[in-house]
Write a structure and sequence with these properties.
This protein is of the alpha+beta class. The chain folds into two domains: 146 residues, Trna Endonuclease, Chain: A, domain 1 (3-Layer(aba) Sandwich); 246 residues, no CATH class. The protein contains eleven helices and 16 strands. The strands form four sheets. Strands 7-6-9-8-11-12-10 form a seven-stranded mixed β-sheet, with helices on both faces. The protein has a five-stranded mixed β-sheet with strand order 1-2-3-4-5, sandwiched between helices. The chain has a two-stranded antiparallel ribbon with strand order 13-16.
């Protein structure tokens, strides 16, 4: 069964769609084809938008859509008000569910449990609050519902493995920054760096909502070059990541916006919210390792890992390998104070020996498991797995 919750599906943008989704979902949960949306707009609904029977008992759902742009939560007072209304519903309810597009809230959930206990002594209905995270987990069991309201999810689920490369994906391009006198125009440079981070945020959001990956690393180069161009200092912007979807989306957006190419941008990028919140600790440099993850539904955290090595993922993963390669490719001394010999450690040591012996490196030397790109092997060793080898044109002396 597909785990759609891994794709971080966004809630409906308006309350009408959310109410329809709740009707479709709970009529399946209750196994009641007679489940109905209660009344019409403007009529008193006694706190119940969707009603039906489960096991012979009447149940009701209040679909509480929240403003996605302010990320509002249901409050204890709102819950109490809806429960008071639901007490007037006829026939009397056995179970009452307040479903919301907002995030989970422990305080409100506790209030719901206390109301349930209070009602139990009075022979009244139970009270449950379900945030959007809870609803996504329910949707995993009813793929026909999720595909009705989010038809793009199935194609996204299939597409990421179809396009996933068996090697680390790379993309880079030069960008000229004006020079005033002998100094780079820092205002232009700062705006460029900020925009690159924003594009990374957009590419990440689509990756996190269309693949199972929402916490991973990448390498980013943002550094001056010696390329001659009168009146400009040419900077090199380059990214490497094991998730092909992420690099491809970054490439599309940069080619369109920063390189000025007439390329088509994916529909998923155009669907990205305008209110993404990006918290970043970013620095320029060569092959800087970053870890990117979610802080909330529309909040993204980017951390550079040079000054925060304790935030690095385990180096037995491809994410961890990229952090290791930052040191290798920047000729840094590597110190492992928590080293333990294992099969994964052997792979890493074989890679270090190969780079040291040949004084050359290509991403083609690392093979990824396409269905699980956090797993890697080194070509030409006993750990190598079967499968097609991708290609990369980025080689480092």
């Amino acid at each position: 069964m597909p785990m759609y919750s891994a794709f971080q599906i966004p809630p409906p943008k308006n309350w009408q769609d959310f109410e329809c989704l709740c009707w479709d979902l709970w009529r399946r949960i209750w196994n009641d084809s007679n489940t109905q949306r209660n009344g019409r707009t403007g009529q008193s609904q006694c706190g119940v938008d969707v009603s039906g029977q489960c096991g012979g008992w009447w149940c009701g759902v209040q679909a509480k859509g929240k403003d996605n742009f302010t990320d509002q939560r249901v409050t204890v007072d709102e819950l109490a008000a809806e429960v008071r209304k639901a007490r007037r519903f006829q026939p009397a309810l056995r179970n009452f569910i307040l479903a919301t597009t907002g995030p989970k809230d422990a305080v409100v959930e506790q209030a719901a449990r206390e109301l349930t206990e209070n009602h139990r002594t009075q022979g009244k209905f139970s009270v449950v609050v379900m945030g959007w995270d809870d609803i996504q987990l329910l949707l995993d069991d009813y793929p026909d519902v999720i595909e009705k309201y989010y038809p793009w999810v199935r194609s996204a689920q299939n597409d990421w493995m179809t396009t996933q490369s068996s090697t680390v994906s790379s993309y880079g391009f030069p960008f000229p920054v004006p020079v005033q006198g002998n100094q780079v125009d820092t205002a232009v440079l700062d705006r460029l760096f900020e925009r690159v981070q924003q594009i990374i945020g957009l590419a990440y959001w689509v990756t996190a909502t269309t693949t199972p990956f929402d916490d991973f690393t990448y390498l980013l180069s943002f550094e001056p070059t010696d390329l001659p161009l009168a009146g400009y200092k040419v900077f090199r912007i380059e990214i490497h990541c094991h998730l092909t979807t992420f690099v491809s989306l970054f490439q599309m957006k940069c080619q369109r916006e920063l390189e000025g190419r007439d390329v088509e941008v994916s529909a998923e990028l155009n669907r990205a919210p305008d209110d993404l919140e990006l918290t970043m600790n970013a620095i320029g440099g060569r092959l800087v390792p970053y870890r990117i993850s979610r802080r909330g539904e529309r909040s993204i955290l980017i951390r550079e890992l040079i000054s925060q090595p304790n935030q690095s993922p385990g180096w037995d993963t491809t994410s961890g390998l990229l952090v290791l390669m930052h040191g290798v490719l920047n000729n840094k001394t590597l110190i492992w104070d928590d080293f333990a010999w294992s099969a994964e450690a052997k792979k890493a040591m074989q890679l270090l020996v190969r780079v040291g012996d040949t004084h050359a490196f290509s991403w083609d030397q690392i093979r990824l498991e396409r269905s699980a790109p956090e797993r890697w092997s080194l070509l030409g060793t006993e750990s190598e797995t079967n499968g097609p080898v991708g290609s990369s044109d980025c080689e480092w002396p």
